Amino acid sequence: MQAFVPLTAGSGARNRFAPAAIESKACLVSSWASRRVLVKRSASSKNDTRIIMSIQTGYGLSVLPATAEAVKEAVSNAGVSSPVIAFIGCTTDRDVEEVYKEFKKNLPTGTAIHGLTSSGGLLTSNGMVKNGVGCLLIHAPAGSFVAASDLSGNASKAAAELKKSLSSELPQAILMSTVPGQEEGCIAEIEAVFGKSVPIYGGTAGDNELAGAWKVISSAGVSGTGVSLVAVGSKGVKFGVAFSAPYKPTSKVVTATKVDGKRRVFEFDGKPASDWVYQWLGPAVEKQYKEGGLVLQPTATSPICKQNPQTGEYTACHLAALGNANEKHVDFFVPIEQGAKLTVMDSGDGPSTGYAKTLEATYKSAKQAGQLSNPKAGILIYCGGMAIAVGQNLNAGLAGGYKSSVGAMPLLGLTCFGEQIKNVQSNLSMGMIMFE
């Protein structure tokens, strides 16, 4: 039984326009641009009056050592002269403030910026690129993308600003970027402004060493505590999304019987939590069991999921760290509620194949969810824990059937420290967000 099927959403029939003509050109491996011309026919006009609207997208990636030159090359390779939004990514190997300032300098005035730092590198359909600077640029009709942010992480303020900038119609979705530990709070604050009917998706900023160097990048600047939001408008662009956590449940189930109300568990089934983990994983976590510390590798290859008692759906939860011999708690990267049932999962051949099948299936699910015929841009969100689990197999996974499916579509790939899946904070998942 598949424990967590791809969770999808899309615009489908909500988009009133149909493509009339497509013109595209392929550039270097690091860049690609496409244009979609949308035609709205007037049924009441004998002369067949048409309103022409266009979507143009492009992606640029550079590894030039000088950040100013790298950003300039990335923007140039993307090949979009008047973007309304720039989705950007880099690693913490760079001075992120400088990356932001150079994008502001090289992008047209008024271009919205939404991005984050990616763990280890940026992802492409050819594999991971270390120390890269990337940008996905999109030109679209007015109102297709609306951005707002708050450098202090006040999602209520950012959401209120976002809603004020939108038309009266609710957006198809809200895309979110924030930093580890703030995700569920931000989701709740956004829901308080927009309600729970608007789906929230996104990825959490990461760094290379879990040292707290992660950053959110927005039109307002760079922040280690911030939140950035993008509303995908109800008209002008089609939108499809899917997330997958490709695991099967085992018979090993435990109940969280003492928690702190956030992400820490003190007891499983009435016994010290780290004792249960040590009995489960043994020598792989012996040092951390005695001294405390991160256990990301063994718990990424043997993930845990919590099951929603109402829907039966599973949410992947990365068990991140153990206390020590005297403080036998465990910490997760998602909230664990009192009484939560946790199931150890089987990841099958995912780690050894770079989750190649899941990557391809997630792309196809997102395309189907949005009823997209020829996606023009995409954002890949790949969990940092899954990247740890696959190790050197990551590039093989990206370059398999996924590469064939994606083709030359402009794609920004990010390795994140958390995934927001339809208003729920999750881990150990991968997602595709696509536009047409």
Features of this protein?
disordered N terminus, eight-stranded mixed β-sheet, alpha+beta, 436 residues, nine-stranded antiparallel β-sheet, single chain
What does this structure look like?
This protein is α+β, with helices and mostly antiparallel strands. The two termini are 33 Å apart. The N terminus is likely disordered. Strands 17, 18, 19, 20, 21, 22, 23, 24 and 25 form a nine-stranded antiparallel beta sheet that branches. Strands 2-3-4-9-5-6-13-14 form an eight-stranded mixed beta sheet. A seven-stranded mixed beta sheet has the order 1-16-30-26-27-7-8. 55% of the residues are buried. Helix 1 packs across helix 2. It is built from twelve helices and 30 strands.
Q: Helix- and strand-based class?
A: alpha+beta
Radius of gyration computed on alpha carbons: 21 Å
Distance between the termini: 33 Å
Strand residue percentage: 35-45%
Query: Helix tally?
Result: 12
- The helicity comes to 10-25%
As residue ranges, the low-confidence spans are 1-6, 11-52
- The overall pLDDT average reads 89
Broad shape: globular
Sheet having the most strands: 9 strands, antiparallel
* Number of E-type strands: 30
Set out the fold topology:
Layout: E1 7-10, E2 18-26, E3 31-41, E4 50-62, H1 67-78, E5 85-90, H2 96-106, E6 112-117, E7 122-124, E8 127-129, E9 133-139, E10 145-150, H3 155-165, E11 173-178, H4 183-194, E12 200-204, E13 216-218, E14 221-223, E15 227-232, E16 239-244, E17 248-259, E18 264-268, E19 271-272, H5 273-281, H6 286-291, E20 293-294, H7 296-301, E21 304-307, E22 314-317, E23 319-322, E24 330-332, E25 341-346, H8 350-353, H9 356-369, E26 377-383, H10 384-390, H11 394-398, H12 401-406, E27 411-416, E28 419-421, E29 424-426, E30 430-435
Parallel strand pairs: 5-6, 11-12, 26-27
Antiparallel strand pairs: 1-16, 2-3, 3-4, 4-9, 5-9, 6-13, 7-8, 7-27, 10-15, 11-15, 12-28, 13-14, 16-30, 17-18, 17-25, 18-19, 18-24, 20-23, 21-22, 21-25, 23-24, 26-30, 28-29
Helix pairs in contact: 1-2, 3-4
